[in-house]
Specification:
heterodimer; A: alpha/beta; 34% helix; B: alpha/beta; five-stranded parallel sheet
Chain lengths: 166, 419
Amino acid sequence: MKLEGKVWKFGDDVNTDEIIPAIYLNTTDPNEMATHCMEGIDPDFMEKITPGDIIVADKNFGCGSSREHAPIAIKAAEISCVIAKSFARIFYRNSINIGFPILECEEAARKIAAGDQIEVDLASGTIVNLTKDETYKAQPFPEFMQEIIAAGGLMSYVMDREMEQT
Amino acid sequence: MGMTITEKILADHAGRAAVKPGELIMAKLDVLLGNDITAPIAIEEFRKAGAERVFDKDKVVLVADHFVPNKDIKSAQQTKLMRNFAREQELTNYFDVGEMGIEHALLPEQGLVLPGDAILGADSHTCTYGAVGAFSTGSGSTDLAAAMITGEAWFRVPESMKFVYHGQRQKWVGGKDFILYTIGDIGVDGALYKAMEFTGKAIADLGMDGRFTMCNMAIEAGGKSGIIAPDKTTLDYVEQRASREFKVYESDPDAIYCNEREYDVSKIEPQVSCPHLPENTKGISEIGDIPIDQAVIGSCTNGRMEDLRIAAMVLKGERVAPYVRLIVIPGTQSIYMQALYEGLIETFIEAGGVVSTPTCGPCLGGYMGVLADGERCISTTNRNFRGRMGHLESEVYLSGPAIAAASAVLGRIGSPEEL
């Protein structure tokens, strides 16, 4: 699967309070969460983006709380993918579990600039910077996580296994 | 080859003789936790998957603590959804207003988390329970939903980092100061994906409340878990509370650590973490003149008996500075009661503070102490991210209860020694 979009760039340690402030955690509706996506760091974010755009950040993206609302808000905002130098572990896990693609790539995080147009091939982990005509290689997912993603997220994966056992 | 306490617990729960860091395992869980923020999403996922019953009604613990007593209609809807689920599933351990407390103060107090357990909680501060010698980690709602069905979760066995604390701690220094100092040393991603194992004489000298504080903030260094091997202090605490068997593990002498760090705590003064990351720590003597508008004493980090006793010791006979609000939040109903018996609540109120029912409220900017534009708060909570406690242009400084209480009186960040 290939994704293409314009890049919005963020720095180190973007936390889940910035991705979706806690006052908006009183809902389970993804579309409502999306309206507050990145509000704690860039209040105008939702007015600026177009569907398919890509977030690129430096180290420890998604640190802080365990709120799944954070990757849900980004996914529902129709951001197609997040690339970072590294991710906080609960955010990473939550993204895999809801079937939202994220990639760890130090080189991409360093070289991609805000506004660059990039193309991401999730299967190979290849990131092409169309603006700069550069290619970066991301860490591929471990096989175990590929199975979860192939099943369409953790719940489908679990239910498939439950079916096999009964 | 030797194993760490974390590797041993995970091996046993995966039905294996041994595990190594980096291995992916499926582990059986002893306790699952959700709250009024995270459980509603998990319950919706549980239903979408077509599941009907949780795998074990004794092992799924739900606590309404973030926005209760409910702050608005939406949070009331969320809590109602969780309450109805708890009733339908006949959960043994559902805690609502009147019985609830801040989850990470409540579960240990109720004897629900025990040494040797493997625990998954849909709350990042689930790492708190490592203080009883359990493997305990935070997750999101989908992980909780899946585990409610299967009783299991997948984990990558973490590498362990060893933190050894030597020496005698200074006056007004506690577990909060140790952990803030450590986060200041290694940074907010210094233990990313890793288990943080705390040990040494200065840890042995800490009571359980200080140990809970330390493990609680492992996540603020990016850690997967924090853990302290059980000793007599641990066993005295859990034995009077446990209603099931538990198993005590300890690390082998030849266990492998990816990093070992040593601290002489006699050189650690009370710590303050400055905006907007927990790693921005300073000793109280270096803090300078920082006026405050509000002080909060409470939360899953520092809302326990020992914390309230220290705060009351500082506040006794003192008066909160003009134009400063002091908010004290006991972690659970029984902590509240005990504080009442000991006269601590009276001390707080006489000093000009307010005392709230247990809630996570202000820590995450939910309610009960939200900050306005330009306001500054000293807080015994765990995160000082931009906008964490309210307006994006407000500031949060983190500290232990002694500094927070003294600051409320001084009207600026300072030490009890200045009173």
